[in-house]
Design a protein that fits this description.
CATH architecture of the largest domain: Alpha/alpha barrel
Family: Belongs to the mitochondrial carrier (TC 2.A.29) family.
Subunit structure: Monomer.
Structural class: mainly alpha
Membrane topology: Multi-pass membrane protein
Oligomer: single chain
Number of domains: 2
GO molecular function, one term: calcium ion binding
CATH topology of the largest domain: Mitochondrial carrier fold
Number of helices: 19
Subcellular location: Mitochondrion inner membrane
């Protein structure tokens, strides 16, 4: 895949594009160069420069240019391999037809030939790796969905509106319903994940609020107390609102995240999390109250909401919002950034036959990313839960975030801020893994894989 002539061709290409000979290629030079090569894809030059520009000076020096092309080539190689069904090192028109059919796009043999001819340099009616590389090297499209978009937009082929794989929400996708598929995928992932791990979530909240040095509650002890008080079904107390809450939260988080450039991953994850949390925060408060309720205390979530509103007013629904918002930055940011980075690193180093990492890799990435996020944000989550639970106290007895934190540290030491982290970590593997895997597979099942 990497050979000396290719290295040489990078040098030649760079010199050809660098028309003012300042050792850098900017967007204008690249745009002109692409035009001269017959590549007219809207925004291609900007996308290539943005992807490769590591020092953020708005242009590519030779090292950045070479690094971008090498990374891009790796991705092109994976796509080439996935199209080459019979593994003979060449793509023919029937393989193009078959791959499009797998994505739900029916094209005639004649159309498949048109696509092939657009890449076939030597006239053999086959495309080998060199021809494929030559054709897509300076086109920002690198996976099959993007390449199909490129074929679609470059007028090689008119495949109408049958392609529902958004890399961004265009007007076309909004009108054809691509956006709700993202919503459904996120909602299902969140609902399945939370129901599966509800007992661990309840025991975590129970330990966060009631456990202390003087009143140590172990994992097993917590379960026993809850079962003694309300039976086995009480382990799912608060799960109804949790499922209702997590569905919009996960969906909003993922949708917001997918709209932001991935090189701004940390910021993207944090903003996506903040958007979701602000929208559904009153449901968070309800969830904590319902999770901690005694048998018969509330008839249901609406009864709980009415009683809180009547007794404590609207403000009660935003108790703990400050530590919650501060916790989003480390949690959502680190979680999504680590997940994406681990997944992409795996693809760059270990993917040889397919651009799909597989369930186990996605599971591993999701678990590690969530663990990192939780370690950073857990003390804030604990303080938030305490504040939500104590909102029913008299206003004079309600502690502020900083005083509550000081009180916990003074009474229980720094480890007091990590009460309930054991069940929390125990639910990391099932909860996050189920969530990300269901999300990835829902996306692929609904035809919106990126």
């Amino acid at each position: 895949l990497r050979s000396a002539p290719f290295e040489r061709s990078y040098q030649d290409l760079f010199e050809r594009l660098d028309t003012n000979k300042d050792g850098k290629v900017d967007v204008a030079e690249l745009r002109e160069g692409l035009k001269a090569m017959g590549i007219f894809r809207q925004g291609a030059a900007q996308k290539i420069v943005s992807s490769g520009d590591q020092n953020k000076d708005g242009c590519l020096d030779f090292n950045e240019f070479t690094k971008y092309l090498k990374e891009h080539e790796k991705k092109l190689w994976l796509t080439f391999k996935s199209l080459d069904k019979n593994d003979d090192g060449r793509i023919d028109s029937s393989e193009i037809q078959q791959s499009l059919a797998e994505l739900g796009i029916g094209v005639s043999g004649e159309d498949a030939l048109k696509i092939l001819q657009s890449m076939d340099i030597d006239g053999t009616m086959m495309v080998d790796w060199n021809e494929w590389r030559e054709h897509f090297l300076l086109c920002p499209a690198h996976n099959l969905e993007e390449i199909i978009r490129y074929w679609k937009h470059s007028s090689v082929l008119d495949i109408g509106d049958s392609l529902a794989i958004p890399d961004e929400f265009t007007e076309e996708e909004k009108s054809t319903g691509g956006w709700w598929k993202q919503l459904v995928a996120g909602a299902v992932a969140g609902a399945v994940s939370r129901t599966g791990t509800a007992p661990l979530d309840r025991v975590k909240v129970f330990m966060q609020v009631h456990s202390s040095k003087a009143n140590r509650i172990s994992l097993l002890g917590g379960f026993k107390q809850m079962i003694a008080e309300g039976g086995v079904t009480s382990l799912w107390r608060g799960n109804g609102i949790n499922v209702l809450k997590i569905a919009p939260e996960t969906a909003i988080k993922f949708m917001a995240y997918e709209q932001i450039e991935t090189h701004q991953r940390f910021l993207a994850g944090s903003l996506a999390g903040a958007t979701a949390q602000t929208t559904i925060y009153p449901m968070e408060v309800l969830k904590t109250r319902l999770t901690l309720r005694k048998t018969g205390q509330y008839a249901g979530m609406f009864d709980c909401a009415k009683k809180i509103l009547r007794k404590e007013g609207v403000k009660a629904f935003y108790k703990g919002y400050v530590p919650n918002s501060l916790g989003i930055l480390p949690y959502a940011g680190i979680d999504l950034a680590v997940y994406e980075t681990l997944k992409n690193t795996w693809l760059a180093h270990y993917a040889t036959e397919s651009a799909n990492p597989g369930v186990l890799v996605l599971l591993g990435c999701g678990t590690i990313s969530s663990t990192c996020g939780q370690l950073a944000s857990y003390p804030l989550a604990l303080v938030r839960t305490r504040m939500q639970a104590q909102a029913s106290l008299e206003p004079s007895n309600q502690p502020s975030m900083s005083s509550l934190m000081k009180k916990i540290v003074a009474k229980d030491g720094v480890f007091g801020l990590y009460r309930g982290i054991l069940p929390n970590f125990m639910k990391v593997i099932p909860a996050v893994s189920i969530s990300y895997v269901v999300y990835e597979y829902m996306k692929s099942g609904l035809g919106i894989s990126k």
